[in-house]
């Protein structure tokens, strides 16, 4: 699961006993060598689908980490891209990966082509933006929000979008009940609940709390019109249903 360049078991244990913010500060230098960074095939599938919804001028990556979603936005947006995260360590890595144009070697990857990026340190539960963005997206971070915080998070994204702006993110189909993946996620969440009952600060990270029905309800309550688009590139399950869908929430 982890490469040699990834964190050691000891480092992971120290991170898991910290707060979310501090945990990511510690993990940041090695984050891109962990499976927690959203894989390129997911980023590519989302890029291809979101491109059909454009064109876009301005994009916001919510909980940007080291910039996985910022790379997507730079391929889709013409004028301005912003990444927001509360971990200073993750933002430092992101800045290094996407240096300003004058400081970039010609062959540089992943910076590549695209508008310059602004990095903003803020809590996604209280975003500091005017309603200015055409497109907001988020990858791999919803497990860090308790179900009770989800509506507030969506309302903050809604408030950062201009009318007509779209908030998109992929959501995977839940593993079949009784499958290996099902028991793995159930076991992980149970261990996290025990950890959080016994230890402070809490580290909120749950896999099974971001359920499609609840998510659609909270998005609608926040004011979005929502639809689902299959992410065909990510394949289908044996029953023919898509392995992942793109949630497209529009501020009407
Ligand atoms: C698993 S990483 C995902 C990073 C990136 N989006 C990706 O897909 O590779 C989760 C990120 O969410 C950020 N995060 C978690 N809770 C947050 C909050 N309340 N406000 C801002 N950032 C938050 C963490 O600092 C971390 O960078």
TrEMBL record:
Q: Which GO terms describe its molecular function?
A: methyltransferase activity
Q: Which Gene3D superfamilies match?
A: Vaccinia Virus protein VP39 (3.40.50.150)
Q: Does the keyword Transferase apply?
A: yes
- Please give the superkingdom of this protein's source: Bacteria
Instruction: Give the transmembrane ranges.
Output: none
Kindly indicate whether the keyword RNA-binding belongs to this entry: no
- Domain Methyltransferase type: from-to ranges: 60-169
Name the GO terms of the biological process aspect: methylation
Q: Which UniProt keywords apply?
A: Methyltransferase, Transferase
Q: Which PANTHER family match?
A: METHYLTRANSFERASE
Q: By what name is this protein known?
A: Methyltransferase
What is the scientific name of the source organism?
Streptomyces rubiginosohelvolus
Its taxonomic placement starts with: Bacteria, Bacillati, Actinomycetota, Actinomycetes, Kitasatosporales
């Amino acid at each position: 699961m982890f490469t040699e360049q990834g964190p050691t078991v000891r480092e992971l244990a120290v991170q898991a006993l910290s707060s979310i913010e501090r945990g990511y500060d510690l993990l940041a230098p090695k984050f891109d060598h962990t499976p927690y960074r959203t894989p390129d095939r997911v980023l590519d599938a989302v890029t291809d689908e979101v491109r059909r919804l454009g064109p876009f001028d301005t994009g916001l990556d919510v909980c940007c980490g080291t910039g996985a979603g910022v790379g997507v936005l730079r391929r889709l947006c013409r004028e301005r891209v912003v990444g927001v995260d509360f971990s200073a360590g993750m933002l430092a890595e992101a800045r290094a990966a996407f240096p300003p144009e004058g400081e970039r070697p010609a062959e540089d990857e992943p910076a590549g082509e695209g508008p310059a990026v602004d990095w903003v340190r803020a809590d996604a539960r209280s975003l500091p933006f005017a309603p200015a963005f055409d497109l907001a997206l988020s990858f791999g971070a919803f497990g860090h929000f308790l179900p009770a915080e989800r509506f507030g998070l969506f309302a903050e994204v809604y408030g950062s979008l201009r009318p007509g702006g779209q908030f998109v993110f992929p959501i995977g189909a839940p593993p079949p009940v009784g499958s290996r993946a099902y028991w793995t996620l159930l076991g992980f969440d149970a261990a996290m609940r025990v950890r959080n009952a016994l230890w402070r600060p809490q580290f909120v990270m749950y896999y099974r709390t971001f359920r499609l029905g609840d998510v659609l309800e909270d998005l609608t309550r926040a004011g979005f019109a929502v639809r689902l688009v299959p992410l065909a590139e990510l394949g289908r399950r044996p029953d023919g249903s898509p392995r992942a869908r793109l949630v497209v929430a529009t501020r009407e």
